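Note to self: keep these together.
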Amino acid sequence: MGDAANLLPAELHCTAGMVPQRKNEFAAGRAAIRMATIADGSEPFAVPMGVDRAPVWPPGIVGSIAHSSDICLAAISRSRRYAAIGIDVEPNVTLPPDIAAEVIHEGDGLELESGAAAPLTKQHYVEVFSAKEAAYKCQFPLTGSVLGFDALSIRLMPQSQRFVARFEKSIGSFRAGDTLQGGYALIGDHVLTVASIPIERWEQLTLRKVQVAHG
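Structure:
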């Protein structure tokens, strides 16, 4: 876990009223961001928390933070490359039946190397859950929309460890049927997922919305 003593002033201000565990998780996320900035060759920057509890990234930067009980990760990118990114990490365990019933929906499935569709097995449920979390985190900075698990369907491609998240209804600049691309990997006893929207794709979506509005 992180050390709150290492937080920057704008971040430390956000921890007022947090219980110790939440403060440590918050600090761990910011420590992970510092590691990502070093890898990126950037100078350290503060990432406070907004009123919606989402990270507030500085201009020119997009990013995402993911926690499990024993892992904290962060990813950042320049906004000239990506409009948004989302990451998630989950223990690679079987989802309890009640959680699986909430997460898994009719549109979720596998896509085989041949291109044929196949149903999910229980071993894929946690991968779908994590993919939906990553896709949710990716779309949220762009739409501000809180989504249920039925708002996005996931098609896993096990051979390439890629996935496609499909919007089941129109949300912001996304229309029903629009997709986000992502990837997943098994790392130790965890599942890691990443979703992203290249800036060129986002410009296409927003231009389409403007054209419809003026059509």
